[in-house]
Amino acid sequence: xxxxxxxxxxxxxxxxxxxxxxxxxxxxxxxxxxxxxxxxxxxxxxxxxxxxxxxxxxxxxxxxxxxxxxxxxxxxxxxxxxxxxxxxxxxxxxxxxxxxxxxxxxxxxxxxxxxxxxxxxxxxxxxxxxxxxxxxxxxxxxxxxxxxxxxxxxxxxxxxxxxxxxxxxxxxxxxxxxxxxxxxxxxxxxxxxxxxxxxxxxxxxxxxxxxxxxxxxxxxxxxxxxxxxxxxxxxxxxxxxxxxxxxxxxxxxxxxxxxxxxxxxxxxxxxxxxxxxxxxxxxxxxxxxxxxx
Length: 293
What we know:
Strand content: 15-25%
Structural class: alpha+beta
Distance between the termini: 31 Å
CATH topology of the domain at 170-283: Nuclear Transport Factor 2, Chain: A
Radius of gyration: 20 Å
Number of strands: 7
Order of helices and strands: HHHEHHHHHHEEHEEEE
Helix content: 40-55%
Number of helices: 10
């Protein structure tokens, strides 16, 4: 039994980064992801030998089922969340480099996943991001394979209709971010407006615990006024460039403490399409952290 226990421990630890990566994408917060992975570990340790044909398949299925249950609760709670809900950002030191599967980790993508039902989100991530078979998706959702295919297809269609259809090189994204931060520091409305798409949307997540807009701000004029208002209200903010969820971003510091994490989407014409400000102190980094692939 000792040998089996050791083998299981090694197998789980080798798969833990993958499981944490999956759970984070499903739930959007590190603490919830870690809780799900820990529960999966306990079930893994007590599983009968005949239950486990493939450690990866078994554990991803367990994580998916646990995440599905957690998502149902989380979605109900987010209905009463104060203002827009954004995922807890994963912040790394600048220059760390993009993570594998960075697009599926981005704030924009995780925010888009919020528009799916819990079952659609789990099914889409399992199939489209983590390459699970339809049979594995069906087992995780406790449904038929035919129904699993329909759920994945519905989620895929929803995502394809709403996600941006262009890719901007990382270096250009970094340039736009620096130009944006400089414009915010100078407080020049014309300079800021020139960087924003006309229908830009700004999402700010304060969770009722920090100053933030209660609704998404739409349109370059309104976004510029909001940004200038922040600069005037807290003029001493300093900036730390960082990798945020595998992409370019920044941490705003107030008296040396994190005030907000910023991420953005850039169009093919190098204009900012969406801005994401996470100011909820419960989601702000105390130190650099990483969700491994």
